[in-house]
Records
---
Amino acid sequence: MPREGVFRARPRPALWRSLPGLVLLGILVSCASAPPREAPRQPVASGRIEWIDVHVHLVGGRGPWAEDSSGAARAAVAAMDEAGIRQAVVMPPPQVRGGPPPYDYESFIAALKPYPGRFAFLGGGGTLSPLRQEAGQRGGSAEEDVRRFGEKAGGFLREGGAGFGEISAHHLPLMSGHPYESVPADHPLLLRLADIAARHDVVIDLHFDPVTEDMGLPGRLASPSNPPVLRANLAAFERLLAHNRKARIVWAHAGSDPLGQWTAALSRELLRRHPNLHMSLRMGGGVPQNLVLDAAGEIKPEWLSLFREFPDRFVIGGDQFFVTPQLRGPGLIFAGRAPLIRERTRRFLSRLPPDLAGQIGRENAIRLYRLTR
Ligand SMILES: [Zn+2]
C-alpha cells in the first residue's frame, strides 16, 4: 500500500498491487459482539470528542476479493465523519477453512486509497488463521508449515500492513451456524508470528475468549458447533505473551467477553505480569457484570481504576462492521449494531477524565500502531 493511501508513519514498498492470495476455502467466523442489552439510540451530537477505532471490519461482499469494498469504505467514512472517528484500523475477520472463500487485506486496500490519513490496515485474518488452523488440526507444526506461514506473514508486511489481525486462538461463535474455533495460544505458528511482529515492530490483534478454569458451556451459547465443556486456556495465552516481550499483542474485545471470565481483576493481573499486553475495548454486548459501562451509562469503578493504573495499555476497538449496501447475511447484521457501539464509545470517552480520554481514545493507538497524526 503506498504511504499516501494510509497513515503509516514509515513508507513501505508499493507492492500492494500484487494479489497472490491463498485459495483456501473458509467460513467467515463472526467476531462481532452480541447485541447490547439496552438500546438508547440518540443522534450523535456534533462538536465532540475525536477518537480512533483500531478494530474495524470492511466487508465488500463474499468472494476471494470482494466486489464492492468501495461501497463499504464510503459507508465507513460517512459514519466516521458523523461520529468523530478520526482514523480506523481495518482488518479481515478471522476465518477458517471449509466454507465460503475467505478474504484478506487485498479485498479492501484499494478501496482505502481515496481517503488518505483515515485508514491503516492489518492482515492475516483470512490467510494466516486458516493456515494455522490447518496445522493445528494436524497436531503440531512441521517445518514446512512454519516456513510457509513466515513467508506469508512477511510478505504482507512488505505491502504496508500495520500488523496482523484479526488472528484468533479461541473464538466462540455467537450466531448459530458458525464453527467453534480453538487452538492453543502458544501454538508454534502463533509464537512464530509473535517473533515476526517483534522483528518488524508491528502489532498482533488477537481474538482470544479466555477460560480461567474448565467450565460447562453456558446454555445461551449452546450450539452443535460449540463443545459442551470449555477447557482452561490462560496458561497457553501467558506463554504466548512471555515468548517475545517485543511482540505487542492487542487483546481484542475487552469489556464484552461472551463467557464472563474476562473481568477487570483478570485484566489487572495480566497487565501487571505482561508489559507487552494491550487491550482494545469494545462497547458491545457480553456478560453484564464485565461491561465497562453500568446500566446508567457510567464507567464502573473497577474499570476506571484499571484505566488509571494502566493509562497507556488501552485503545478503542469497536469491532464495527462496515459493509456494502449489497451485502446479505451476518455481516449486515453486525453492521446494524455499529451505530450503538459508536454511541456507547462516545459515551465512555465523555465519562473519562480528559487526560485518560485522550490517551485511550487517540494517543495510545497512534503510538501502538505507529499512525501519523
Ligand atoms: Zn473478534
---
Amino acid sequence: MPLTSKSLPEYWDTYKPHKGDGAPSPPVVDSFEWTQYPGHGPGAGFLGQPRTALELGSAEGKEAVFLARMGVETTALDFSPAQTARARLWWEGTPGLSFVNAEACDHLADTSATFDAVFSRWGAVWFTDPEKLIPLIARRLNPGGVLALSQAEPIEGFYGPQAMYGNGLSGRRLPVLRWSYSTEMWEDLLKRSGFTGVEASVLPAPEPDNVGTLMVRARIPAAPAVPSVPKRRRR
Ligand SMILES: C[S@@+](CC[C@H](N)C(=O)[O-])C[C@H]1O[C@@H](n2cnc3c(N)ncnc32)[C@H](O)[C@@H]1O
C-alpha cells in the first residue's frame, strides 16, 4: 500500500463537521488563534506586518478571514474539496480573500505568486514531508518574508513521520502521516532551505501538564541593499 497524499483530501473532508439541519452558519471570527487553547498564544502579530499571505491547510478559513479583514491580501489553500467549498460558502466575497483548492506542494511548485508571509496553523506543514514542502515555501516568499507555523508539540524521542489509520482500525486502509520534529531539528531544516532568524519553541499549555504548542517562525533574508553609485565629480 503506497503512502501517497492522493487519497487524503477525502479524509479531511469530514474535519470539523457541522451538525444540525440546514446550512451551517459561519463561526465568529474575532481572533487569530495559533494554539489549541482559545486566547492563548501570540495572535496575528506573530506574522509581522505582511501585505500578502498564504495559508497552507486553511480548512474553514477563520485565520485567513481574520487577516483579510485586517487588510492583508490573503490566499486560503486547502486540498480538501469539502473544506474549500464550505469556506467559500461562508467567506466568498470577503475583500482581499481568495481560495485555492490544491495540494500545497503541487500549488507552490506551479504558482509564480510570491508572498510576504506563508503560514500553517495545524495545517499542511504538519501533514506534509517538510523536506519537500519547506524548500518550495522558501521559493515563494518575498525577500524578508516570514514562514510561521504551529502544531502539537512533539513527543520527546518520537520524531519524523508519525502514521495512523485515518479510517480507524476496522475501516478501509487510509494511512495519514504527521511530521513531528524537535525544535533543534526544525532549526536545522529551515536553515538548510535558506531561512534565517529561526525561532522554534514549545509554548506551554495554560495547564502545564497539558499538551503544548510547537511554534516556529523564520525569515527569508531581505534583499541586500543596492549599493549607491557615487556621483561623478564635475571637472
Ligand atoms: C488539522 S486541519 C487544520 C485546519 C485549520 N488550519 C485549523 O486550524 O482549523 C489540517 C488541514 O490541512 C489540510 N491539508 C493537509 N495536508 C495538506 C496538503 N498537503 N495540501 C493542502 N492542504 C492540506 C487538510 O485538508 C485540513 O483542512
---
Amino acid sequence: MEAGRHLVVVVAHPDDETFSCGSAIAAASAGGSTVTVLCATRGEAGERRPHAATDHLPLAEVREAELRDAAETLGVSAVELLGYADSDFAGPMPDGALCSVPLPELTAVLTERFAELAPDMVLTLDGSDGHRDHLHVRAATEAALAAGDQPVLLRLSCLANSLMRRWVDEMRATGSGTAYLDLDVSTLGTPDELLTAHDVGHVLEVREAAIACHRSQRSPFEDLSPGLRREFLATDHVIDTVLGGTG
Ligand SMILES: [Zn+2]
C-alpha cells in the first residue's frame, strides 16, 4: 500500500489480526499507511492457556489487552471493539453472539464504520478455516463494501493449500495429534492458483513480537519447524477484489 492510505482491518477475534494478517498490517504501517482494526468480539470462547499473572481475570479482558498490545506492536493507529460475543467454532451460542446477528444488521454496522473511516483498502480473513465468526465477518464486510458509493479494494487474507498440506505432514510426523490423520488435505485453505503471494519478510520480527503478545492463546505456528513457520509468516497469500462504486 502507498504511504498516506488508510487500511481498515475487520476481524472477529483478538489474535486474528496477528495470527492471520499481522504481516500485512505491519507492512502497511511501516510503509506509512494508517491502520484501523475493527474487532467484532473479545474472543472469550477461545481456549485459555494458563498464565499466573492473568488467571484471575476474565478471558475477555485478558484478550482485549493482548489485542491492544499486539496492535500497538504492529503499528495500528486505532482499535475498535464492536461489542459482540464470541460465537465459538460450533455448538450453542451465547446471548449477543456475533453469528446470531442477522447479516443485514452486521452489514449496516460496517457500512456506517466504513463511511466514517473512508478506507482505501479493507482487509479481512477469507474464513477458509471454517470458523463461523470469520465467515460471518467476511460476508458482512463484502456486503457493506459492495453497497458503497466508492470502489474500495477488499483484500482477503488466505491460507495457501500447499502450506496447509505441509502443516498437516509435520503434525502427522511429530505425532502432535491423531486429529490430523483423518483430514482431507485437498480441502484445506485456499487453492494456490487463486492466490497472489506477497513477500512480507521485512516485517517478520514485528509479526513475531505481536504473536508473543497473545500469551493466553496457543499460536497455530507453535509446533512448526522453523522453515515452515517462516514460510507461513514471511509470505502473505491474498485475493484482491474491488467492490462498490457501481451504484
Ligand atoms: Zn478468529
